[in-house]
Every structure is written in structure tokens, then in C-alpha cells.
Amino acid sequence: MTSPNAPTATSRTHRAPRVALKGSTGSPFARVLGFGSYRPRRRVDNEEMCRIIDSTPEWIEQRSGIIERRWASDDETLLHMCTEAGKMAMERAGITGDQVGAVILATVTWPVRTPAGGPQVAAALGANGAPAYDQSAGCAGFCYGLTQAEGLVRSGAAEYVVVIGADRLTDITDFQDRSSAFLLADGAGAAVVGPSDTPGMGPAVWGSDGEASGVMGMTPTADGSELKFHMQGRDVFKWACTYVARQSAEMLEKAGIGPEDLDVFIPHQANNRIIDAMMRTLRLPEHITVARDIKYQGNTSSASVPLAIERLYDDNLVESGQTALIMGFGAGLCYAGQVIQLP
Ligand SMILES: CC(C)(COP(=O)(O)OP(=O)(O)OC[C@H]1O[C@@H](n2cnc3c(N)ncnc32)[C@H](O)[C@@H]1OP(=O)(O)O)[C@@H](O)C(=O)NCCC(=O)NCCS
């Protein structure tokens, strides 16, 4: 029986407001104006890794494509890495701290739950006072951030937005778990998104699958003493190679381009074999440049896409004006991506 006090659905009548408000208007379009990155100093090759876990260098390379990864030292804190990457992106975009309209920090490894890292990063970038916040979308975090940044620039909520993807995955790695420890690494990447007269970013394709959230994330270690990152690698692998790969095809479609129009493919650096499977699904032509930063960097979660972009610039494999498909996928489960024009 329904209680007499139970709320009932009512439809509200919208009356004409008594006063008119000013709305916000931003730039017609947005684009990435500059990228930046920070790669930790310490290289850990597969030989060294196999002194920690029960594996072989050959197995690791064959199953993941990784030959070495970067681990942050104590002085390479998340704040330090974010600041270095953010400053580099701002310098390349030609903006100073006082021009920053918002800072979005994508991370799953900020050391405390509150206060958030975003405001501290904003302060370190000379942008104290700017709106700044953290977001948790796993390895999709950077692309989630770019999507929000585009919206902020186009709505007029901010003129220039610094998006940072940074993680110290070694802080949450279970070194007793040989199926994930060899994949995880540390680093930071950043981008400045700003106004543009022409489209510099295609529409995002993004989403989540909370019903499958148990596939990866923080769970107790075997002895139950700590929460560390664990995953069901095979399930993640299948999801990425099938569902996420199909979503990537939609990213091209939404931007109004075909695979033959693409110059560069920069997927999340989770596993070389996932990248290969995605290329097959997308039917990418041979001549396209494909990011393979995984080989020397490992999986850095939200930093992986901007770090991979940075290596392509360093190796002179990409140039300004080229059209790139970028995408990330990971814990949540979350995925996001878009076609962008490289700065
Ligand atoms: C983790 C991953 C590399 C494992 O590769 P795989 O080919 O799927 O291997 P499987 O999980 O099927 O395991 C195969 C065997 O290797 C063993 N194995 C696991 N880790 C090993 C290691 N480091 N060294 C040697 N053998 C290992 C397993 O125990 C298993 O043995 P079994 O067949 O006797 O049970 C792969 O699943 C992967 O990359 N998944 C995606 C993970 C990821 O990127 N997550 C983050 C996304 S953001």
C-alpha cells in the first residue's frame, strides 16, 4: 500500500522569468595548442623486472611489447611531474599562468583523497585562483579531460584550459601479482586547449560500463593487508580489442573522416597486441604513424596518451597540422577519444 506521505510525480509549469539573465558564450571551436610531458629518470628493463616477479623478459616482451618501463623516484612526486608537464604545455601554447582559465587533473594516484591535487597543480603552474579539480576515469582520464576542456572553451567558462594526465602507478602496484606488475609505470602528460576559429577537435565518443567495474581497480592483496591495483587481464584485453575498437571507428565517423584521412593513431598504451587489434578493426592504411611508446614506457594510465604523443614529436614522426586519432580506455570501465589536429 502506498503511504499517504509518499512523494508523487508532479510536472512543474515553467513560467516566463521575471528577469532575463546574461548567458555565457565562448569560442566557436577549440583546439589543442600545445602538449607537454614528464618522463621519470629511472628505466627498469625486463631483466630487472624479472628479479621481482616470476617471469621472463621474452614472455613480457612477446605478450605486451614492453622492453622497459619508467619508474618515478621519491623526488619525482605526482605534483612535480604534473608541474613539469603542465609548464611545458603552457610554454608551447604560448600562455602564462594568469591566462589559465581552468586546470583539470586526471589521475587515480593522487596520494590523498582530499584535498584534490588540481588546485595545488594550478598554484604550481602560476595559475593560483583558477578553477581546478581532479577526475578519476582511469586510463581514459586524459581524453575525458580534453572533452571537458573543449566544452569549457566553447561555452565561455574558460578561455584556456590545462589538462594534465598523471599517475604514479608504482604506488599502487602489487609486486606479488606477476600478471599486472610488469605493465605498470609512472609519468605525466599535459595539453593546453584554447579557442579556435575552425574545428581543431572532433566530437568525443565517450562512455562507461559500471556493470563491469570489477574487472580492474583497487582490490585487496593476497594476504589482505593492502589495497592495490589488480585486473582480470584477459577480460580487459577482450573488451579493448572488440568494444573499444568499434567505438574508435565511431570517433572517425563523428569527425567526418575515414581511416585514409588519418595521419596518426595514438591509442592508450596498454599492450602492443591491443594496438594491433585496434588497427585491424579500424582498417588503418599502412602509411599511418602509430604510437608505440609502450615499448619504452609501460602503461602510465592517464599519462599514456600525451607521453606517446611526445615521443612521436621527439622522433620527428609527426608534425603540426596532422590529423590524429587519440583514445584511452581503462578502469571504471571508462573510454573516451576524439580526432584532433596536432599543434
Ligand atoms: C596481462 C596480459 C599481458 C596477459 O597476457 P595474456 O596473453 O592475456 O595472458 P593470460 O592472462 O591469458 O595468461 C597466460 C598465462 O601466462 C601466465 N602469466 C601471467 N603473467 C605472467 C608473467 N608475468 N610471466 C609469465 N607468465 C605469466 C598466466 O598465469 C597464464 O598461465 P596459465 O595459462 O597456466 O593460467 C594481457 O591480458 C593484457 O595486456 N591485458 C590488458 C591489460 C591492460 O592493459 N590493463 C590495463 C588497461 S588500462
Automatic annotation (TrEMBL):
Q: Where is this region: Disordered?
A: 1-23
Stretches assigned to the Beta-ketoacyl-[acyl-carrier-protein] synthase III N-terminal domain: 133-210
Nucleotidyltransferase recorded as keyword:
no
Q: Which CDD domains does the UniProt record give?
A: KAS_III
**Pathway per the UniProt entry:** Lipid metabolism
Q: Which GO terms describe its molecular function?
A: 3-oxoacyl-[acyl-carrier-protein] synthase activity
Q: Where is the composition biased (Polar residues)?
A: 1-11
Keyword set, alphabetical order: Acyltransferase, Cytoplasm, Fatty acid biosynthesis, Fatty acid metabolism, Lipid biosynthesis, Lipid metabolism, Transferase
Any GO BP: fatty acid biosynthetic process
Among SUPFAM superfamilies, the record links this protein to: Thiolase-like
Q: Which Gene3D superfamilies match?
A: 3.40.47.10
Domain of life here? Bacteria
Database matches in Pfam families: ACP_syn_III (PF08545), ACP_syn_III_C (PF08541)
- Please list the residue ranges annotated as the Beta-ketoacyl-[acyl-carrier-protein] synthase III C-terminal domain: 252-341
Q: Which family does it belong to?
A: Belongs to the thiolase-like superfamily. FabH family.
Q: Which NCBIfam families match?
A: fabH, PRK09352.1
Protein name stated in the entry = 3-oxoacyl-[acyl-carrier-protein] synthase-3
**What is the source species?**
Propioniferax innocua
